[in-house]
# Entry
Amino acid sequence: MIPYNKKVLEHFRHPHNFGKMKNPDAVGKAGNLVCGDVMYLYLKIGKNKKNEEIIKDVKFETLGCAAAIATSSVITDLIKNKKIEDVFDFKSSEIIKELGGLPPQKIHCSLLATEALKEAIYDYFKKKKRKIPEKLQKEHERILKQKEILEKKYRKNE
Amino acid sequence: MRRKKIYLDFAATTPVDPRVLRAMMPYFSQKFGNSASLHSLGQEAKIKLEECREKIAKMISAEIPEIIFTSSATESNNLALKGIAFANREKGRHILISEIEHESVLKTAEWLKGEGFEVEKIKVDSYGLVDLDDLKKKIRRETILVSVIFVNNEIGTKQEIEKIGKICKERGVIFHTDAVQAFGKVLIDVKKMQVDLLSASSHKVYGPKGAAFLYCRKGIKITPLLHGGGQEFALRSSTVNLPAIVGFATAAEICHKEMKRETERVEKLRNFFVQQILSQIKGSHLNGHPEKRIPHIVNFWFEGIEGESLVLRLDMEGICISTGSACSSFSLEPSHVLLALGLKPWQAHGSLRFSLGRKTQKEDLIFTIECLKKIVEDLRKISPFKLKK
# Structure
């Protein structure tokens, strides 16, 4: 069995903010059925007192291993009520730090959560017809490309 | 939290039977002699070693000198593949293995590729049965070895070994079978089945870890992997691990004596378990052959679920099981066995193996089904993929 720490197991067993959101402002989908990990991240965007856009509510749905579920749960805690511009460049290392570490072979699972977040913000900007920052556009393209490579690898079993 | 653990991973390993442990005890500190020594202590060990060899040989209808003791089934499989390949390379360099071999055959065959051998895989059907026509088609003049797993460790499908043996015999090809999950569970007759080499392991049959054997038919040319003092007919040099071998032979003997009764008991439990899971848990499917299977291994896939999550959640309830093969837990790749059956990668990721054993009781299975039902429901609530109504 892969050795997870207590905090990871706690999030895995009792994840926070899971389930489908009704009428979300944005949805980010990451991962791939082929590798067994898929995450949907739902965002509701609101405004704070300074009239800045913040993530007012967040929910997730994840099919995946314990690390995928725990990182999904933890990212919802970390980004809630944060300004969009502050979570824009959210690093997976922050998730790992918050969880108190992940087994080495599971580090990549934390990317699922950050990718879903980036995809959700991309989705929000697109819906709002805003200009998409170059960095986000590049990330979006990279995520799509990676998906394609994986799907090709297992095409014979499709 | 339940205090008692429910162990449903007997295909991974088994606890040592207390009768086995008792039989082993004198060979650690009292009768500790080296079977290669000339003095009486050594000779006492030698006599015991040969007694164990005879016991095992009889169980599979082999001749006594056809049993080579090794340290693990992985070693036996390595010796079989590499040993046959190197001893017969003048005849040819073509090796056939099935698509659903254990890693110890698969990786050894892959390594042989780098040594100038050609390895091809024999197809299996959606139940995991070797396609005999594909086998016939792929055997050529240069084929020196066919290796097919007797009972697959992940799905429990049992091959028609006699038919494969016959095909190989008719074509003059050496036939090896990895019988780790079959030995001690089904009757094996290497003569009738026309098997030339067969691997089996102690710790799967309530014996200790660290003992295994390779049966190698008289007259088959094989090169040793380990050179040295010339133990095991010069095919496996190393001081003989007598306590483990005594344990192995005792454990195997008990399995043989109790085989009929235990098979019937486990089969009944297994049927109950399969029927309950399929009827109580929506979106659950049985992997492997519905009939041609070993009683103790069952494998399911659950829609909308990932296997590791399920294993961990069951472990929190004190239930020990595997997803795919225990060895795959660290590779993160979907199981090659399940993919070979034609399962889609996400179906393979959602697959679980339950393996029953001597200690399994009906109430353990009832509790497991209850937990499983609840956990599958919980995980599906988290999952973006809901069951179609």
In short: Chain B touches chain A at residues 304-309, 311-313, 315-316, 329-330, 332, 334, 339, 342-346, 349-350, 381-385 (CB under 8 Å). The radius of gyration of chain B is 22 Å.
